[in-house]
Amino acid sequence: MSAVPPLGTAHRHEKGRAGRFVTFEGGEGAGKSTQMRRLQQRLAERDVEAIATREPGGSPHAEALREALLGGKAASLGPLGEAVLFSAARIDHLDRLIKPALARGAWVICDRFADSTRAYQGARGGVEPRLIALLERVALLGTTPDLTIILDLPPEIGLERARQRRAPDETADRFEREDMAFHEGLRQSFLDIAASEPGRCCVVDALAPEEEVAQAIWHIVEARFFRGNAEQKTEQASA
Ligand code: Z5A
């Protein structure tokens, strides 16, 4: 069997794909949803259509699986069973929302993606890396993120932020209920992923105030996707 390509290096600009695919990763309450909204707004100011979506979920079948996964009904399957369900949800999400949007030139900004399976079910859940890599390859079939922002902060702060945001009648989900050692390990797992794929992943300090985090993310996005265009246009104009 051939080696599984790491996420972010395989077929990044496959045929028919014109938009950009940006994913947000990190622990609970790191500010992913908040920063996705802000990025979407910055892109809109540049007349870029950006679709914000999430995992697990983002399409009707995947949202149904989300309920089972986060409600804890799927926990009895064990981490490998859960990884398979997260991947099944991902396939539907890719087919129904992500791939069509990218093909028509829209950007897709996604709250969690395959790195979460690597971190939660793989590194923390103990599913063998080669099985996680295989599931990833089958689910993604080459649709890999152009950029992954990893929001990093101490887990006790993220969990507290998530707790404060919860409505009074809402309970912590299956993963939020894990112990602090799990969440510490998770943070390290995301940092390890970033270190292993520096071309795709950028770590951003999520402890900073919201505005500062948004600025840091915008600098990364601008440098990666817009500065080249501006330079190209200047070169063309002066040629
Ligand atoms: N999971 C998995 O195991 N395997 C997989 O393959 C996938 C997922 C895809 C999805 O949970 C769960 O599924 C997740 C992993 C697992 N585990 N859990 N739990 P989710 O979608 O329900 O939740 P989440 O992804 O963990 O995100 P979150 O808790 O909703 O947080 P967030 O989106 O990162 O943060 P936020 O909502 O933007 O901000 C939280 C609060 O902090 C809010 O009140 C903000 O106003 C505040 N905030 C945000 N930024 C700041 C700053 N900079 N300073 C101060 N306060 C801030």
What's a concise summary of this model?
The chain has 239 residues and is α/β, with parallel strands linked by helices. It has helices at residues 32-45, 60-71, 78-103, 114-124, 129-140, 155-165, 180-196, 210-238, and strands spanning 21-26, 50-54, 107-111, 147-152, 201-205. Helix 2 packs antiparallel against helix 3, helix 3 (78-103) packs antiparallel against helix 4 (114-124) and helix 3 (78-103) packs parallel to helix 5.
Plain-language structure description:
- This protein is an alpha/beta fold and 239 residues long.
- The protein has a 5-stranded parallel sheet with strand order 2-3-1-4-5, sandwiched between helices.
- The protein has one domain: P-loop containing nucleotide triphosphate hydrolases (Rossmann fold).
- The structure holds ligand Z5A.
- The site of ligand Z5A has 27 residues, from helix 1, helix 4, helix 6 and helix 8.
Strand order of the largest sheet: 2-3-1-4-5
Class derived from helix and strand content: alpha/beta
Strand content: 5-15%
* C-alpha end-to-end distance: 49 Å
Q: Could you say which small molecules are bound to this protein?
A: ligand Z5A
* Count of individual domains: 1
If classified by CATH, what would the architecture be? Answer: 3-Layer(aba) Sandwich
Roughly how many Å is the radius of gyration?
Answer: 18 Å
- Model regions low in confidence, pLDDT < 50 over at least 5 residues: 1-13
Number of DSSP helical runs: 8
Helix content: 55-70%
Q: Element order, helices and strands?
A: EHEHHEHHEHHEH
